[in-house]
Amino acid sequence: MVTRRRVLGFVRLVALCAATGWMCGCERAAVGQGGGAITSATLRVASWNVENLFDTENDPTNPGDNEYTPTGRQLWTEEVYRIKLERLAELIAEMKPDIIGLAEIENRRVLVDLQKVLADAYDCHLPEIVHREGNDHRSIEVALLSKYKPTDTRWLIGNPTGREMICATFSTGASELTVIMCHWKSKLIPAGMTEQDVDNIRIREAKVARRAFERKLRKNPGAAVMVMGDFNDDVTSPILTRDGGLLVSRGLLKTNPTCLYNLSADIPANRRGTYYYYPKRLWNSLDSISVSPAMLDASQASTWTVQEGSYQIFKYPEHLDANSRPKSFRLVRPKDADPYYIYGYSDHFPVTVTLERGMAEERQEAGDF
Ligand SMILES: [Ca+2]
Ligand SMILES: [Ca+2]
Ligand SMILES: [Ca+2]
């Protein structure tokens, strides 16, 4: 049966392709001309897959949210939703981000609800929202919450029937910081597809993200550009390193100046895990933040550099289960008892980094240029 959503999705897709030319990996037109230059000396940036942040209403155009209703399979009542928001806000307030990328966001409403809990319960103010509805089959998108309004926001489309990426540029006064937020397709193989089909989509997503930051770095090798998110693959995977240009060796940056460095490579391989895959009893480094070469060297021209030792997989103590794995927020269905919720947080750990205003910006502001 062809659902209304699919028809709408197809019509939208055709219009989108015509408008933006995604076939060549082009960016969606810029929207939102904002202000709000970053004035602080440091900037904390985070990325977190918050795991199924759905509201409780059944969106008739989205079959992907049917289980997240009070009578749906997840028994997703208003009370459960409120507790989920509360948990997420509690952890985000601990991280104290200035800009946070979020994955698995149903719609704008859940972001507004999360903002409100952050502000009211934790005095944590992230007033700017970057989000739009996409074509994902469950209608879960990436989003940014931020203290600052981007001066330019684009959506990158690597998979026209999947999740888009956000490419947001913030003004830092004299120059810019660009943040690309990703949630690439998972390695699960849907019916009718092969592993190669899925890999091809994932490779295209990687290449589209890469093209966006390469363009910035060719124009300005000192540009501050970050790529972060849930890549649904380990940081050493060829799709990240070979196709996405997110390198795990600082040495290779010298000969590949338009590639980025994945900060998770600074963490020993056995401690990079952000997600625990129970069927194979394996940790995966699905979530990470990569930065442009100039951001690694405070003497270089970048506006923002990584504060030494600040990158971390953020392990909020309450987020750890008895085995130090991420404590998910999930419904348990015992065979001989009523279902009940484990009020965790998410099946992913967040990642976070602190940036410092670079020398170039300071000199520029002092009028030395
Ligand atoms: Ca919903
Ligand atoms: Ca629905
Ligand atoms: Ca959605």
Care to describe what's here?
The chain has 369 residues and is α+β, with helices and mostly antiparallel strands. It has one domain (28-365): Endonuclease/exonuclease/phosphatase (Deoxyribonuclease I, Chain A, 4-Layer Sandwich), CATH 3.60.10. It has six helices and 18 strands. The strands form four sheets. Strands 1, 2, 3, 4, 14, 15 and 18 form a seven-stranded mixed beta sheet that branches. The N and C termini lie far apart (64 Å). The site of one calcium ion has 5 residues, from loops.
Q: Round the mean pLDDT to the nearest integer and report it.
A: 89
Q: N- to C-terminal separation?
A: 64 Å
Return the CATH topology.
Answer: Deoxyribonuclease I, Chain A
Dominant shape: globular
> Any idea what the CATH superfamily is called?
Endonuclease/exonuclease/phosphatase
For the record, what CATH class applies? Answer: Alpha Beta
Largest sheet: 7 strands, mixed
Please state the CA-atom Rg, rounded to the nearest Å.
20 Å
Poorly predicted runs: 1-35
Number of domains: 1
CATH architecture title: 4-Layer Sandwich
Beta percentage is 15-25%
Helix content: 10-25%
Number of helices: 6
Overall SS class: alpha+beta
Distinct bound molecules: calcium ion
Number of strands: 18
SSE order? HEHEHEEEEEHEHEEEEEEEEEEH
